C-alpha cells in the first residue's frame, strides 16, 4: 500500500452480549441507515478492501492531527502533556454518525473526515478492526466497540444491526432510569477489563442519569516490546529542558552502540525517528517521534498535517542513530464536546441534533464525549490504552562523527502507528516527562 496516500497518526471500545430485543429495538420507521450488506460483502476483492482501509485511515489521520492542533492550542492545555487515541474517538463517533441525519451527520462526517460512501466507510472500519485485532505473538493489540442501551427505549433495528455487523458493537440493555449509578459502574468495569485496568472511571460520577438513553463506547489496548530494547543499566538521570528557563531531572535511556539502526530523517528544523516494536511476521507497530531542532514545539504543532507526516514517514532511511530518550508515563482525560463543537460539529451537542437514525425520533442528542488515555514508555517497550464514551440523552435534559544524535531532552511530539498502512493509533506530546 502506498504510504504517501495513507498519511499517519494515532488510537479504541466495548464488547457486550448482543441483545436486540423488544427493550432495546423497535419497529418505528425513519430514514434508516442502509443495514443491507454492501454488494459483494464477504467476497470483496483485496483491492476494494485496501481502498476502503486507505480511505478510513486517511480520514482518521486527518482528524487525529486536527484534534491534536485543537487541543494543543487550547489555553486550558498550555504547557501540559497531551496524549489521546484518535482512532478510539473516531471509532465511537463513526458509530454515532451511523444514526445521524441532515446537518448533524454532515458536520460529524466533515470533522472526522469520514468517507461519505457507506460501503467504503463501513468496510474500511470493519477491515481495519479485524486486522488490528489479529495481533501478533510479539505484541498485544485489542480494539472493541459496544452499545449500552436504556432497556425501555426502542432503537431501530437498522441502526443496531449496522453497529453490530460493521463495528462489532453489540447491544447490552441497562437500566439508566432507575439504576444510573449501577449502569455507569457496569460500563466502567468493562472498560477496565478491556484495557487491563489502565483506564478507570471513564464515565465520571453524574455522567449517566435517568435521561441517558445510549452510551457508545470504544476501548483500545496495546503492549509491545521494542525491536531494540534499551539496557536499563545505561539509563541515567539527566536534565530535560521544559522551557528555556526551566529544566527537570528525568531518567534518560540510551541506545548508542553499533546496533542502533533506526529509520531516521531530518529537515532544517526537525528530526524524525521511528522506533519499531517487535512484531514477527504480523502487522508492524512503531512509535514515530518528531523532535524540533530549535525547541520550538509550537511551530511544529502548527505545521502538522497528514500530508506532511506522510512525506516525512516516506523519507525515513534506516541508519545508525545515537538515541537518548526519556522514560515517561502519562495519564490523561478529556471531555470533548466543546472541543469537537469548536472544530465544526456543534449540532450533535445541541437541541438541533438529528439522531433520528437511532430511534426514529428527533429527541436524542449527544450530552458529552468522554476520553481517557494511558501510556508507559520504558526500556522494554510501551504500554498504551484509551477509551471513549459517547453519552446520548433525551433533549431538554442537564564535526567529526557524523552519526546523528537524537537527544529528546526537550518537548516533543510522538505517534504510535500501524506501520503497514500508517493508521495513527495514539498521538501525544511530552512537555514534562515527570508530570502527569
TrEMBL record:
<feature type="domain" description="Serpin">
    <location>
        <begin position="65"/>
        <end position="433"/>
    </location>
</feature>
<dbReference type="InterPro" id="IPR042178">
    <property type="entry name" value="Serpin_sf_1"/>
</dbReference>
<dbReference type="InterPro" id="IPR000215">
    <property type="entry name" value="Serpin_fam"/>
</dbReference>
<dbReference type="InterPro" id="IPR023795">
    <property type="entry name" value="Serpin_CS"/>
</dbReference>
<feature type="region of interest" description="Disordered">
    <location>
        <begin position="28"/>
        <end position="47"/>
    </location>
</feature>
<dbReference type="InterPro" id="IPR023796">
    <property type="entry name" value="Serpin_dom"/>
</dbReference>
<protein>
    <submittedName>
        <fullName>Serpin family protein</fullName>
    </submittedName>
</protein>
<keyword id="KW-0964">Secreted</keyword>
<dbReference type="InterPro" id="IPR036186">
    <property type="entry name" value="Serpin_sf"/>
</dbReference>
<dbReference type="Pfam" id="PF00079">
    <property type="entry name" value="Serpin"/>
</dbReference>
<dbReference type="GO" id="GO:0004867">
    <property type="term" value="F:serine-type endopeptidase inhibitor activity"/>
</dbReference>
<comment type="similarity">
    <text>Belongs to the serpin family.</text>
</comment>
<dbReference type="InterPro" id="IPR042185">
    <property type="entry name" value="Serpin_sf_2"/>
</dbReference>
<keyword id="KW-0732">Signal</keyword>
<dbReference type="GO" id="GO:0005615">
    <property type="term" value="C:extracellular space"/>
</dbReference>
Amino acid at each position: 500500500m502506498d504510504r504517501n496516500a495513507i498519511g499517519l497518526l494515532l488510537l479504541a471500545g466495548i464488547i457486550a452480549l448482543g441483545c436486540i430485543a423488544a427493550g432495546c429495538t423497535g419497529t418505528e420507521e425513519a430514514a434508516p441507515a442502509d443495514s443491507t450488506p454492501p454488494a459483494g460483502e464477504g467476497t470483496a476483492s483485496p483491492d476494494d478492501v485496501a481502498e476502503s482501509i486507505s480511505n478510513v485511515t486517511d480520514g482518521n489521520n486527518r482528524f487525529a492531527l486536527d484534534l491534536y492542533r485543537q487541543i494543543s492550542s487550547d489555553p486550558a492545555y498550555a504547557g501540559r502533556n497531551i496524549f489521546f487515541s484518535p482512532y478510539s474517538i473516531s471509532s465511537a463517533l463513526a458509530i454515532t454518525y451511523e444514526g445521524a441525519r441532515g446537518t448533524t451527520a454532515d458536520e460529524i462526517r466533515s470533522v472526522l473526515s469520514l468517507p461519505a460512501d457507506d460501503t467504503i466507510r463501513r468496510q474500511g472500519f470493519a477491515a481495519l478492526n479485524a486486522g488490528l485485532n489479529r495481533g501478533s505473538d510479539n505484541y498485544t493489540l485489542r480494539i472493541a466497540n459496544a452499545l449500552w442501551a436504556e432497556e425501555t427505549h426502542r432503537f431501530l433495528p437498522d441502526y443496531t444491526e449496522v453497529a453490530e455487523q460493521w463495528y462489532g458493537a453489540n447491544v447490552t440493555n441497562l437500566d439508566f432510569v432507575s439504576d444510573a449509578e449501577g449502569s455507569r459502574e457496569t460500563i466502567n468495569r468493562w472498560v477496565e477489563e478491556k484495557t487491563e485496568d489502565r483506564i478507570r472511571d471513564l464515565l465520571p460520577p453524574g455522567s449517566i442519569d435517568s435521561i441517558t438513553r445510549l452510551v457508545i463506547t470504544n476501548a483500545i489496548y496495546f503492549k509491545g516490546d521494542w525491536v531494540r530494547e534499551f539496557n536499563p543499566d545505561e539509563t541515567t538521570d539527566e536534565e530535560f529542558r521544559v522551557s528555556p528557563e526551566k529544566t527537570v531531572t528525568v531518567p534518560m535511556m540510551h541506545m548508542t552502540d553499533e546496533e542502533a539502526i533506526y529509520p531516521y530523517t531530518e529537515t532544517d528544523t526537525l528530526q524524525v525517528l521511528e522506533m519499531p516494536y517487535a512484531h514477527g511476521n504480523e502487522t508492524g507497530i512503531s512509535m514515530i517521534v518528531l523532535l524540533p531542532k530549535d525547541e520550538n514545539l509550537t511551530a511544529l504543532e502548527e505545521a502538522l498535517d497528514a500530508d506532511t507526516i506522510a512525506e516525512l514517514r516516506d523519507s525515513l532511511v534506516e541508519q545508525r542513530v545515537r538515541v537518548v530518550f526519556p522514560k515517561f508515563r502519562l495519564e490523561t482525560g478529556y471531555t470533548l464536546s466543546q472541543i469537537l463543537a469548536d472544530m465544526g460539529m456543534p449540532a450533535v451537542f445541541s437541541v438541533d441534533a438529528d439522531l433520528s437514525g437511532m430511534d426514529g425520533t428527533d429527541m436524542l442528542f449527544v450530552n458529552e464525549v468522554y476520553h481517557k488515555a494511558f501510556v508507559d514508555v520504558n526500556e522494554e517497550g510501551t504500554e498504551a490504552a484509551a477509551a471513549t464514551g459517547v453519552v446520548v440523552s433525551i433533549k431538554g435534559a442537564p564535526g567529526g562523527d557524523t552519526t546523528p544524535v537524537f537527544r529528546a531532552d526537550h518537548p516533543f511530539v510522538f505517534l504510535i502507528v500501524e506501520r503497514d498502512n500508517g493508521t495513527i493509533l495514539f498521538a501525544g506530546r511530552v512537555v514534562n516527562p515527570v508530570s502527569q
